[in-house]
Amino acid sequence: MLSDDFILLHDNARPHTARKTQELLQKFKWGVWIHLTYSPDWAPSDYFLSPKFKEHLSGTSFSSDSDVKTAAENRLIG
């Protein structure tokens, strides 16, 4: 059996939204992330990373682009 932590990212194409597909997704208890049709510049990783960066950097002021880059690298690397 596949993991309960499986997440499907789809774009609302008909095969992805068909009743049989939706029933299987519910049966397997898989999460579904919908890729917004009008956001071609967003990569799938952006849906997870962007909110996490926003939360981590909330309320922080930066004096330069390099400060932003350093903060982002520190967040990714730890």
Distinctive features:
Transposase-MT_Hybrid, 2 domains, 10% strand, two-stranded parallel ribbon, 78 residues, RNaseH_sf
Write the layout of secondary structure elements.
Elements: E1 7-10, H1 14-17, H2 19-28, E2 31-34, H3 44-57, H4 65-77
Parallel strand pairs: 1-2
**Which structural class fits the helix and strand makeup?**
mainly alpha
Order of helices and strands: EHHEHH
Query: What strand order characterises the main sheet?
Result: 1-2
**Distinct helical segment count:** 4
How many domains in all? 2
Provide structural commentary.
By secondary structure, the protein is mainly α. The chain folds into 2 domains: 1-39, no CATH class; 43-77, no CATH class. The chain is built from 4 helices and 2 strands, in the order βααβαα. The protein has helices spanning 14-17, 19-28, 44-57, 65-77; strands at residues 7-10, 31-34. The longest helix has 14 residues, at 44-57. The two termini are 33 Å apart. The model has no long low-confidence stretch (mean pLDDT 75). This is Mariner Mos1 transposase. InterPro entries: RNaseH_sf, Transposase-MT_Hybrid. It comes from Araneus ventricosus (Orbweaver spider). Residues 58-78 are annotated as: Disordered. GO terms for molecular function: nucleic acid binding.
